[in-house]
Task: inverse folding
């Protein structure tokens, strides 16, 4: 973030980028953990940076409609960031036509808007198919972050599986591009550095503690059934 500022990039989103001659759109897909996303949102707010966080409605890893899930997303919003929809076409279990994909995106944006009581007007694709990448979906009232504008007029950089396909810092320093579109996943980063293997292992192991806490909030005196030190 500091390097982008030093290189003269203004931070913009999918709606206001046209007002800056040199800008960077920061995008974060929330694939696994809302808590990690909140932590990154706090760090960005401290740095005076705004970003767009894309949230899945259909996932086994978190529940945006739960009390804790909605609170996490509202916390991200309160820090000055935008919430968008992370749309998983594979969640529908079938090959969808372009028209049906657009219908489902509009439906899910409406559901997320109702949860947050604020408009949701941008979408990113989760694990997009080749067809989705090439489709350039035009969605009424919703900006498609995979649209041609953001892949042809911007330099796109991504940390898929925490692996940058190109030397992102060198590209920023080069100042060769006036518009950058940068995707990062909060899940892969920590206050203390750790490798990808440890990140996944810790996340899997932490599920026991999270499930225990969820049960404790729904069962009176859970320790009489299952003492905490036995979990």
Result:
């Amino acid at each position: 973030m500091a390097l982008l500022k030093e290189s003269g990039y203004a931070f913009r989103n999918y709606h206001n980028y046209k007002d800056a001659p040199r800008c960077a759109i920061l995008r974060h897909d929330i694939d696994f953990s809302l808590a990690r996303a909140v932590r990154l949102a706090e760090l960005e707010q401290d740095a005076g940076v705004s970003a767009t966080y894309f949230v899945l409605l259909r996932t086994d890893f978190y529940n945006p409609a739960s009390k804790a899930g909605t609170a996490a997303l509202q916390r991200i919003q309160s820090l000055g960031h935008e919430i968008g929809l992370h749309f998983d076409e594979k969640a529908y279990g079938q090959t969808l036509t372009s028209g049906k994909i657009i219908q489902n995106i509009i439906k899910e944006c409406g559901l997320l808007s109702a949860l947050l009581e604020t408009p949701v007007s941008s979408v990113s694709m989760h694990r997009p198919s080749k067809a989705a990448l090439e489709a350039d979906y035009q969605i009424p009232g919703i900006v498609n972050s995979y649209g041609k504008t953001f892949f042809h007029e911007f330099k796109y950089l991504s940390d898929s599986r925490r692996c940058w396909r190109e030397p992102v810092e060198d590209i920023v320093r080069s100042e060769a591009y006036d518009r950058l579109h940068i995707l990062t996943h909060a899940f892969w980063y920590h206050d203390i550095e750790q490798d990808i293997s440890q990140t996944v292992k810790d996340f899997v192991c932490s599920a026991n503690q999270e499930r225990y806490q969820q049960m404790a909030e729904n069962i009176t005196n859970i320790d009489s059934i299952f003492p905490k030190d036995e979990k």
Observations:
- The mean pLDDT is 90.
- The beta strands are 10-12, 23-30, 52-56, 82-87, 122-125, 143-144, 155-158, 179-184.
- Helices lie at 2-6, 34-46, 67-78, 98-116, 130-135, 148-152, 168-174, 196-216.
- The radius of gyration is 19 Å.
